[in-house]
């Protein structure tokens, strides 16, 4: 199994089979004590991760840094293009070529969809897509699956309601396809202007799932096993007026949770900007901070496999 991972680019969740994803999740379980600092590891000692974030990030960037550091490796890179030669007009191709010579694996976040695939063309080292515009976010998908499986014991058969920005939300695009692969039931809740793009819907249906489409969260929340909330991504809207029409349309608060299943779990890739009231944080439903931590063991497992330290 490890032979298939060593040196692999991670650009899209479609690059993985269900068996490969399950292998990553299984190894991630073993990484948890190291991720928590309860055990030490030098698995990736001597290895360097190139971290290139052309867009703001907290959880993804820091969890990759933590994952590499916890395994004994080192990290170099930037989190603000203004502080790099990008500000001078350097192309993505040239930046990738340079960092390729300084590191063993490159993690890239970029505002343009397809940037990670382009980077993989110019790099000899593995490229990991940390989000490319409204495209894909495959490692977020893996940590989301890990979180669901940890809480629900399985992914298949759960009714996952995904609400918010389904058009521009790259997290949703990757996750919905993976959930379909794992046999989950899907319900998409969004206004018509932000519903799941047809190309992703077609991919989901090709995997044998027929999602439910709705504009009302109140109509579907009672049947949800997992509620996956996303923010309306203001930065992706070409027209600010269009954003204002949908901003704040969905909000999870205590009254909204009055009649939900007792074991409903609420997830969010974060950051949140009002979609989930802070009063929900104290409930047993809230799993989004656990979800954020789970990025560390999952990314540890993936880095170990890609760099050849794990089997």
Mind explaining what this structure looks like?
The chain is of the alpha/beta class. Helix content is 36%, strand content 14%. It contains eleven helices and nine strands. It has helices at 18-35, 59-70, 92-100, 115-122, 138-152, 170-181, 198-206, 217-220, 240-246, 288-293, 295-306, and strands spanning 48-53, 74-78, 105-110, 127-132, 159-163, 185-189, 212-214, 226-229, 265-267. The strands form two sheets. Strands 7-6-5-8-9 form a five-stranded parallel beta sheet. The longest helix is centred in the N-terminal third of the chain and has 18 residues, at 18-35. The chain is globular. The model has no long low-confidence stretch (mean pLDDT 91).
| Low-pLDDT stretches | none
Main pleated-sheet profile: 5 strands, parallel
Number of helices: 11
What characteristic shape results from the CA principal axes? Answer: globular
Strand content: 5-15%
How would you name the oligomeric state of the polypeptide chains in this document? single chain
CATH C-level class of the largest domain: Alpha Beta
Question: What's the architecture of the largest domain in CATH terms?
Answer: 3-Layer(aba) Sandwich
- Mean pLDDT comes to 91
| Ends apart, CA distance between termini | 7 Å
Q: Would you give the CATH topology of the largest domain?
A: Rossmann fold
Strand order of the largest sheet: 7-6-5-8-9
CATH homologous superfamily of the largest domain, by name?
Aspartate/ornithine carbamoyltransferase
Domains counted in the coordinates: how many?
Answer: 2
Derived structural class = alpha/beta
Tell me roughly what share of residues is in helical segments: 25-40%
Number of strands: 9
SSE pattern: HEHEHEHEHEHEHEHEHEHH
